[in-house]
């Protein structure tokens, strides 16, 4: 379900993108930033948390919860405002400043008092910078690639984003252990250095962007906020694409909560998060297929196929207790997710005017993070409550997975019904 206004160029796949110097710089900076984000998360929740004394009457889970709230709260508070800000400045400058700021913030840690409140403030400030970085990164993609290459560009970005999740969490602890041998501040130097390296890459990125006129810049931010909302109300294609992305990320948030219990259910006691890793592999595979051969899928309702595939995977999960089947279904789940995420992100970029990119991507970031809080908050308690009600934890998990399967099916059918009438060509 992806509009195409002109035939795809024969060289619009990954090969063409890799010849684009501006895109290569943007993509390289994204890879380094994403890996830095994952390693910083590990640094924050393991080594730093152990060395920064927390209130003695707090439990370990409470300490981690407060820290994670400090990381997620900026997305809710500043997501939309960050998008408005991004539209008023050069995207390249925003990308540079965000990474310089994050790098210097991490490097300043050894100079600050080792107090838990300091750790909370560092986590909060780092997350604030990320809220500005995310919409600027998304808004920069249409500036460096042609319209017919957007699908391939988003596929490559999705591939590397999921690859960074897998690689970052896989090598984060070993890299931090190695950095510890560099000296007392080795770990902070590693993470801060990665952010600074990303900033240098963005600084060297060849990108020419047309500036807004002074009259446009002087418009009050509240006017920008209302303009963004009005645009989303008027453009059903973009708003529905955003709803589909929000539903997709909500399902993965719920799966994150259930990953440990699901892993135990199929016998993955030694590596309970393997299901999330294999789902990431499925997304990488799906994004790679779309990026390289996306022009062959014209007139295919990819997001509907993706939602139905995810619904089938969730239903099979509820009955499976086999490691092989569980891992295979997890890959299938990731493939389905790629059929939703890549085309819908491309729809938003393709259909949104350049002057609205920051606002729209800011709203998207805001909506997704607010929506994520609901499944993160209720999935665990709901599964436990259903398990107690039916007298079996396994049956409670099964009911939740079946409920998610029904929800995903309804969202997919609703989205297709609401958008197919306004699409002339689909992918």
From TrEMBL:
Classification via CDD domains: MFS_MefA_like
Topology versus the membrane: Multi-pass membrane protein
InterPro entries referenced in this protein's UniProt entry, alphabetically: MFS, MFS_dom, MFS_trans_sf
Pfam families hit by this protein: MFS_1
Keyword Cell membrane among record annotations: yes
Transmembrane portions of the chain: 66-86, 155-177, 189-207, 241-260, 272-290, 302-319, 325-348, 390-416
GO CC aspect terms: plasma membrane
Subcellular localization, as worded in the UniProt entry: Cell membrane
Principal localisation: membrane
Residue ranges occupied by any Major facilitator superfamily (MFS) profile domain in the UniProt entry: 236-427
Gene Ontology MF term list: transmembrane transporter activity
Keywords on record: Cell membrane, Membrane, Transmembrane, Transmembrane helix, Transport
Recorded superkingdom: Bacteria
Name the UniProt record assigns to this protein: MFS transporter
Organism the protein comes from: Aliterella atlantica CENA595
């Amino acid at each position: 379900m992806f509009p195409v206004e002109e035939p795809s160029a024969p060289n619009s796949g990954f090969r063409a993108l890799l010849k684009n110097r501006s895109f290569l710089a943007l993509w390289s900076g994204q890879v380094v930033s994403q890996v830095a984000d994952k390693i910083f998360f590990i640094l924050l929740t393991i080594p730093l948390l152990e060395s920064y004394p927390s209130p003695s009457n707090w439990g370990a889970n409470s300490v981690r919860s407060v820290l994670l709230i400090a990381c997620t709260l900026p997305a809710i508070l500043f997501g939309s405002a960050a998008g408005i800000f991004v539209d008023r400045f050069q995207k390249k400058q925003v990308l540079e400043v965000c990474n310089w700021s994050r790098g210097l913030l991490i490097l300043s840690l050894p100079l600050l008092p080792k107090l838990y409140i300091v750790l909370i403030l560092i986590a909060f400030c780092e997350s604030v910078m990320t809220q500005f970085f995310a919409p600027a990164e998304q808004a920069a993609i249409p500036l460096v690639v042609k319209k017919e290459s957007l699908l391939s560009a988003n596929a490559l970005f999705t591939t590397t984003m999921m690859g960074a999740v897998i690689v970052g969490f896989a090598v984060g602890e070993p890299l931090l252990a190695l950095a510890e041998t560099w000296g007392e501040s080795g770990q902070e130097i590693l993470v801060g250095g990665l952010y600074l390296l990303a900033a240098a890459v963005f600084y060297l990125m060849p990108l020419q962007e047309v500036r807004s006129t002074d009259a446009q810049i002087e418009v009050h931010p509240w006017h920008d906020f209302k303009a963004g909302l009005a645009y989303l109300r008027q453009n059903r294609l973009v708003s529905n694409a955003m709803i589909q992305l929000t539903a997709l990320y909500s399902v993965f948030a719920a799966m994150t909560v259930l990953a440990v219990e699901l892993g135990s259910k199929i016998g993955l006691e030694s590596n309970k998060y393997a299901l999330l890793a294999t789902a990431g592999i499925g997304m990488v595979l799906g994004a790679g297929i779309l990026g390289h051969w996306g022009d062959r899928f014209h007139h295919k309702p990819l997001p509907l196929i993706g939602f139905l595939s995810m619904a089938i995977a969730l239903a099979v999960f509820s009955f499976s207790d086999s490691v092989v089947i569980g891992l295979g279904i997890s890959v299938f789940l990731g493939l389905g997710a790629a059929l939703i995420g890549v085309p819908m992100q491309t729809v938003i970029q393709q259909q949104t005017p350049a002057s609205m990119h920051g606002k729209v991507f800011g709203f998207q970031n805001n909506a997704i993070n607010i929506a994520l809080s609901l499944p993160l908050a209720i999935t665990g308690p709901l599964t436990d409550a259903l398990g107690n009600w039916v007298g079996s934890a396994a049956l409670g998990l099964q009911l939740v997975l079946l409920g998610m399967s029904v929800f995903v099916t309804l969202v997919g059918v609703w989205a297709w019904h609401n958008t197919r009438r306004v699409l002339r060509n689909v992918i």
